UniProtKB/TrEMBL annotation:
The protein's name: TPT domain-containing protein
Stretches that traverse the bilayer: 84-104, 116-135, 180-200, 207-228, 267-286, 306-324, 331-350, 362-383
Pfam family, one: TPT
UniProt keyword Transmembrane, yes or no: yes
Localization per Swiss-Prot or TrEMBL: Membrane
Superkingdom of the organism of origin: Eukaryota
Keyword vocabulary terms for this entry: Membrane, Transmembrane, Transmembrane helix
Residue stretches making up the Sugar phosphate transporter domain: 91-380
InterPro entries in the cross-refs: EmrE-like, Sugar_P_trans_dom, TPT_transporter
Source species of the chain: Brugia pahangi
Main location: membrane
Keyword Transferase listed: no
């Protein structure tokens, strides 16, 4: 045992044990594969290994560490296969929920006079869903994460305010514009997200980042060109929502992927953020809809008194919103805010493409060019991200020659 630890001390590898980055039992199982030559030199034991075997061993340890580190994070490591499956599962859940919620909210709000009331009720529904599930999980397993009030004020209040304004202003804007116009205007959120990511040092300045974001935004703009009439009030509301989207997901990425990882589970994130989202939307709600509130008006739907229909539609929308937000945070754990936004843009392109084919809408040359530009920007971002991750992984590989020299010295 002393001889093994002596080698690791000399080679600088003892940190693997101290930091718990590789399991000791797994290490010794693998260690038996190597031929050991033990000799005495000065006053301590040393180990000599075949150079080729040592190189294979070090590569295996590094690969194991990289697979354990997992997520992409702050321009982090290359995800392992398990995380890739998690990302795929999140995308498969997120797409139908997000598409369904967009069209459902558009359909319901067009016939209902209180869009901010609907959003406020959704926050309450999501909070109770999250707390009930947390209670069941704590009862059957371990205690869930707890966050101090100070940390909530520092990190969760900005997220709650931005998320509340994002969702509230988006639903408000949908009252005045079509889904196509909403998609075109909301596409600018990736520009806000890139800006905040650069300001908060989540991303390093790279020209390719700006080019890819610009291609996606301009391409989506052309893709929805002349698909809807211009409406200034709706445009301003949606652009404010896009700015809130950028800040919201940037700060969320810091919380879920930062060194401290205050909240790394989507359920905990939803549970802790909802109260602040609720408090943030209340001023807007009372300012624009409070004076009109009455039981008759709130329960009025399609020119008749229908409280059960209103309750059902609001509850169903809240359930969709809860599931979609869980999927969003799941994707954020394993990717980044910008990548998550690109997933959303792909979803919007699919939605509008289906609308074109199902409804028989005509694809003009400008629309086709916009679609190609949009996909070009996505491919450019994916390629640059992959290249950057490979370069970072290569630069972090330890100098094996130095380790071999230490062993043979």
């Amino acid at each position: 045992m002393e001889c093994v630890m002596a080698f690791f001390t000399e080679g600088g590898m003892v940190d693997f044990f101290q930091n718990g980055l590789i399991n000791k039992f797994e290490f010794f199982l693998r260690w038996r594969m190597y031929v050991l030559y033990i000799s005495t030199n000065s006053h301590f034991w040393r180990i000599r290994l075949h150079r080729k075997n040592l190189e294979i061993f070090i590569d295996g340890v590094i690969l194991g560490m990289r697979n354990r580190s997992g997520n992409e994070g702050k321009e982090g490591e290359i995800p392992d296969s398990a995380n890739m499956w998690n990302i795929l599962a999140g995308v498969c859940i997120y797409y139908p929920l997000s598409i369904g919620l967009t069209f459902f909210q558009k359909w319901f709000i067009k016939s209902y006079e209180f869009p901010l009331l609907v959003v406020t009720c959704h926050y309450v529904i999501k909070y109770f869903f999250a707390m009930i599930i947390r209670f069941v999980m704590e009862y059957r397993a371990d205690r869930r994460t707890r966050i101090s009030f100070k940390d909530q004020l520092q990190w969760l209040v900005p997220i709650g305010i931005c998320a509340s304004l994002d969702i509230g202003l988006s639903n408000w804007g949908l009252k005045y514009v079509t889904v196509s116009f909403f998609t075109m205007a909301k596409s600018s959120s990736i520009l806000f997200m890139v800006t905040f990511a650069l300001l908060l040092h989540l991303e390093r300045w790279r020209p390719v980042l700006i080019i890819s974001a610009g291609l996606i935004t301009f391409g989506l703009f052309l893709f929805t060109w002349r698909s809807a009439q211009f409406e200034l009030r709706g445009l301003l509301l949606i652009e404010l929502a896009a700015a809130c989207t950028g800040l919201r997901w940037t700060v969320s990425q810091i919380i879920m992927q930062g060194e401290e990882k205050l909240l790394k589970h989507p359920l905990d994130m939803v549970a802790y953020v909802q109260p602040w989202m609720f408090l943030a939307i209340l001023p807007l709600f009372f300012m624009y809809e409070g004076s009109q509130l009455s039981f008759d008006k709130v329960t009025h739907y399609l020119n008749e008194h229908a409280p059960f229909y209103v309750l059902f539609f609001i509850s169903f929308g809240g359930l969709l919103a809860f599931a979609m937000e869980m999927a969003e945070y799941l994707l954020l754990v394993y990717t980044s805010g910008i990548t998550l936004n690109i997933f959303g843009i792909i979803k919007e392109v699919v939605t509008l493409s289906l609308a074109h084919f199902i409804n028989g809408d005509y694809f003009s040359l400008v629309n086709t060019i916009g679609l190609l530009l949009c996909f070009s920007g996505m491919l450019l971002h994916a390629f640059s991200k992959r290249t950057l991750l490979k370069a970072r992984t290569k630069s972090r590989m330890p100098d094996r020659r130095r380790l071999l020299t230490d062993v043979d010295a």
